[in-house]
Amino acid sequence: MMEAQISGISDVIKLAVASVFLLPAIIIMIRAMTTRRGRLIDLQNLVRDRLRGADKVQVAESEKALNALLQRSLLANLGIRFSLLAAVLVSLVIAGAPVSALVSVDLTKTVFVLFLLAMLSMAISLGMFLLEVYLGKSSRTPVKH
Q1: Radius of gyration of the chain measured on its C-alpha atoms
Q2: 67, 90, 62, 81: which is closest to 125 by C-alpha?
Q3: Is 93:111 a contact under the CB 8 Å cutoff?
Q4: pTM score, two decimals?
Q5: Which residues neighbour 29 within 8 Å (Cβ) at sequence distance 6 or greater?
Q6: Which residues, 6 or more positions from 84, have their beta carbon under 8 angstroms from its beta carbon?
């Protein structure tokens, strides 16, 4: 009986520790996306400044560039939100495993579903990030400094 409890506690600790290693990866992803988002804001401001006193051709080009930057910003924002959601879900997995052992309630399925949702959220976040990078590389919107 005691060996089963020790084995169960050991399994809970392994699950919690394994999930803890996901948090730094998620934080690095959030940093990368917020850095890109900041750069997009700078470029948007540059294009808006260029709109002042521009002729009709320049206005059309600038508006096109601004719309592309706004689309990319939306993707970056969504990516950041999904990464934050993944971090919260991973934190719940980390908290849920020991709570399950302490309270003697089987939260195995709940913790597993939280883990799957965290991974799905992270995959969506990475997809948003890759799409934003792809749009940035394919649009090659010229922004003169």
Answers
A1: 22
A2: 81
A3: yes
A4: 0.80
A5: 83, 122, 125, 126, 129
A6: 30
